[in-house]
Amino acid sequence: MGNLYIGLVHYPVKNKRGDIVASAVTNLDIHDIARIAKTYSIAGFYIIQPMPSQKRLVKWIISHWTEGYGGEYNPIRAEAFDSIRLVDAIDDAIMEIRKETECPPVVVGTWAGYSGATIDYEEMSALIRTEIEPMLILLGTGFGMADEVQEICTYILEPIRGNGDYNHLPVRAAAAIILDRIRRTTQTD
Amino acid sequence: MGNLYIGLVHYPVKNKRGDIVASAVTNLDIHDIARIAKTYSIAGFYIIQPMPSQKRLVKWIISHWTEGYGGEYNPIRAEAFDSIRLVDAIDDAIMEIRKETECPPVVVGTWAGYSGATIDYEEMSALIRTEIEPMLILLGTGFGMADEVQEICTYILEPIRGNGDYNHLPVRAAAAIILDRIRRTTQTD
Questions:
Q1: Which one of A148, A178, B89, B182 has the lowest number of neighbouring Cβ atoms within 10 Å?
Q2: Residues B55-88: pLDDT tens digits?
Q3: CB-CB: which of A31, A166, A177 is closest to B176?
Q4: Is B172 touching A (CB cutoff 8 A)?
Q5: Are the beta carbons of B143 and B14 closer than 8 angstroms?
Q6: Burial tier of A50 (Cβ tally within 10 Å: 0-12, 13-18, 19+)
Q7: B169–A176: do the CB atoms touch at under 8 Å?
Q8: Is pTM beyond 0.80 here?
Q9: Residues B136, B43: Cα–Cα separation, whole Å
Q10: Which residues have a Cβ under 8 Å from the Cβ of B70 and sit 6 or more positions away?
Q11: How deeply is B59 buried, as exposed, middle or buried, from its count of CB atoms within 10 A (0-12, 13-18, 19+)?
Q12: Is B156 strand, coil or helix?
């Protein structure tokens, strides 16, 4: 239960043309994914963002909702924001989890259009249930994580497919669906 | 496949104090739920909003993304916006579906804290598979739909529970999880 982490990756990601860039933070991603992570008892929600101006923005949003007026007005939101951690790079998230759990995390990548070998949601649930190692699920922003991130992934998660050809879910919706699929299975066992 | 509709209800809903109000439209609700609905092949996404100023806003957003600059810049978003329909009241959505399908829809309500008798996701999937009647799933904004809406619901859907006590998902995330649970089961049959 306590060993599942997620990371929202803003670097390295692709832009519309396929160049590798650092993407800007979306306020709603932070709010929605924090609430989703809290609902599914995620141990930590990493915002992976190296740009100083963007990091300042994230810190401002977090402090507004945990210490500032937002936290007083909406204590339920403050509770969701508790699990947020801001780091510069994927490696920093991995190191922090390793330090916290005394074990390197299994890194699971997600790419909407991935066509190679993947792990499915039932296998993922089974892995989480064993709780031998912590797990870090990486979600990309922009037009998806750079391909080089695949090198550090132990598994790549089966892409979400709907019922038609349209395959453009917001990362917020993908986070909700992935955690529900993984945790819901765990819950009913 | 083609008989499932969703409605995002802005009136009648509760505010923080439990008063019945019309809630304001959230731009991101429209974008995210349109993309989620398109992914899961929903026949129509009703935005239920009676306030004239708010209706103008919704029309402006839709036309920007389907006819205006947004549609040219992002044709994939325009495709998602295709299924949006703006109506004043839940009854108008019901009447329109009845006209389109020549059958009154089964109305399914969703309340996060509902504790009475509910239908679960497997039963819902089975109902949709039969495709005898169209179905309209209503999602509340604000602090949830007014209790009086229960009178027109044939079923109330089992609330989404996570793995802890935190039960405050954004309506965008609830829409993603509900459609994935219902449609994913359908898909694997």
A1: A148
A2: 999 999 999 988 878 888 888 888 899 999 999 9
A3: A177
A4: yes
A5: yes
A6: middle
A7: yes
A8: yes
A9: 10
A10: B64, B77, B78
A11: exposed
A12: strand
